[in-house]
Specification:
121 residues, Nucleotidyltransferase, domain 5, 6 strands, 6-stranded mixed sheet
């Protein structure tokens, strides 16, 4: 299964990014083989609509699951509409976040956990 993890870098040892819509990268990991590819998040620099645009990018990359720290309302709705399961509360490196998911330590997002525009800096 392909899993998208929000990241500040381009490999499994990179620190994961707590933001979804404005994360720097999506690291797409095969949960079985741990093969991965990093993709720039083109939505990160958009003036508005970063969450829904990032959700479309994750969908286009073929991910079935998203692991991140936080999801705002627009991102949550876009992910939910696309059928991607979002998991929140991850921390550490990309690899550590994947292990947290595999151990069942992350919460599946049933609603947004931050307000709109929470990831803007």
């Amino acid at each position: 299964m392909k899993i998208a993890i929000t990241s500040r870098g381009e490999d499994l040892e990179a620190e994961m990014d707590q933001r979804f819509g404005r994360c720097q990268y999506f690291v797409i990991v095969d949960s079985e083989t741990l093969e991965f590819q990093a993709h720039d998040n083109k939505a990160a620099m958009e003036r508005g609509g970063a969450g829904p645009q990032a959700a479309k990018a994750v969908l286009d990359l073929g991910a079935e699951v998203l692991i991140t720290g936080n999801l705002g309302p627009n991102a949550f709705m876009a992910l939910h509409a696309s059928g991607i399961k979002g998991y929140i509360g991850a921390s550490g490196t990309v690899k550590e976040a994947l292990e947290q998911y595999k151990k069942g330590e992350l919460k599946q997002a049933e609603e947004p956990n931050v307000d709109s525009h929470a990831g803007m800096s």
